[in-house]
Amino acid sequence: MKIAVACADDNLEAAVDARLGRCANIVVVETDTMEFEVRRNPGALAGTGAGVAAAQLVADAGAVAVIAGNYGPNSLSAFAAGGIKAYIGAGKIREAVQALVDGKLEPVQ
Amino acid sequence: MLHADRPTVSVAAGKGGTGKTLFATSLAVALNEVQPGQVQLIDCDVEEPNADILLHPQIAEREPVKVLVPEVDLDTCTRCGRCAQECQFSAIAVIRDAVLTFPDLCAACGVCAYVCPVGAIAEVERQVGIVERGMSPEGIHFVQGRLSVGDQRATPVTKATARMVDVNMISILDAPPGTACPMQESIESSDYCILVTEPTPFGLANLQDAVETCRRMELPCGVVINRDGIGTPGVTDYCTAEGIDILLRIPQDRSIAEAYARGETLAHSFPQWRDELVDVYDAVCKFLRSESTLTT
Ligand code: SF4
Ligand code: SF4
Domain containing A77: what range? Predict the structure, then answer.
């Protein structure tokens, strides 16, 4: 499955970014192979609507789950409506993704 | 659109709490003494209108402010995602099977409805605020805009409120604090902007922002120093260096603060201030007249 992770950088050793709406990039990881692609977050520079733009990007990437340090209300309602699970994560992206696969991450209510 | 005899004056401040509304309402009351029934006060701070606390108007008319927002017919929609791609404001999203709209972010531009290949988007009206009109006990024509609770986009309400300027009257426009869009949308319809500041380093920094905003908008401005006597001479030095008129100094004075706390303007509780306030408006008129003869 594909998982989208908020990131300031562009590789799996980088840290999960604190905020989905404002992170520079979104790293989309295929958990079967740990292959990934990096997508620039259009909302990073936007005034308002950053959370919605990031949520749209996550959905367009085909991700079924997303990891970030935190979420705004708009992106959370978008994920909830679309059935994409949002998780709170921190530390290295590779480890956060592994933790999610192992069922050790907390989904946001 | 300069109205030579009765220019519209906006009152702004780089931040809240500088005495902006106290000055704006005091000016309106003083001018109404010399030109009864000819003065209009417009409170454009639609997120927190508070001039009514000092003017005690009777509200007679209420007009809703409405904007168009998209409504998606989910049965017709194919989830193609065009609308979300084209929206510049991220106000509509297609997240897998769900189509969501975010009315607070929507600029009512109509692009989504236009690009939808199957005509699934209709534009429906949504109320975002209200413009209220009335009269103060002494006969000041009063207007205030109010953003609906929970709504975040002040622009349509601010613009609808500022549109109430009557060029045949002496209009005083109380702008929202800061220098962001709502402030600019308010002062845009005025001929002159009075910037209220405190004589502190912080006040100076905010004043510089506000002056730059006015200059970018090519709107002439002057300064009123509130709580004069506290702080530093920085504001005065800055105005002198930049050639900005200091129109009035309101001293730091306990009795003024107390009157304000009781909900009274300067002109109500201190008749000696009335002439000075009227002089401020006259100085603005004179300045604008000299400007227009210079440029024409
Ligand atoms: S009307 Fe304009 S701003 Fe509003 S959702 Fe449609 S495209 Fe976006
Ligand atoms: S453009 Fe029209 S059909 Fe396509 S997702 Fe938007 S509403 Fe649905």
Answer: 2-101
Interface of B with A in 97-116 (CB under 8 A): 97-98, 100, 102, 105
Pocket lining: B109 vs ligand 1, CB cutoff 6 Å: yes
* CATH domain B9-57+136-295 topology: Rossmann fold (3.40.50)
Query: CATH number, domain at A33?
Result: 3.30.420.130
Note the ligand closest to the C-alpha atom of B75: 2
Residue of A20, A45, A52 to mutate when probing chain B, most B C-beta within 10 A: A52
Residue B208 region by backbone torsions, left for phi larger than 0, else alpha for psi between -120 and 50, else beta: alpha
pTM of the complete model beyond 0.80: no
Only one residue has tokens 């001929």, namely B191
Query: What are the start-end ranges of the H helices in chain A?
Result: 50-60, 73-82, 93-101
pLDDT tens track, chain B, 296 positions:
445 578 999 999 988 888 899 999 999 999 999 999 999 999 999 999 999 999 999 999 999 999 899 999 999 999 999 999 999 999 999 999 999 999 888 888 899 999 999 999 999 998 999 999 999 999 999 999 999 987 777 889 999 999 999 989 999 999 999 999 899 999 998 999 999 999 999 999 999 999 999 999 999 999 999 989 887 889 999 999 999 999 999 988 888 888 888 888 888 888 888 999 999 999 999 999 888 765 54
DSSP code at position B93:
E
Cβ–Cβ contact B96 with A under 8 A: yes
Instruction: Tell me which fold the domain B66-127 belongs to.
Output: Alpha-Beta Plaits (3.30.70)
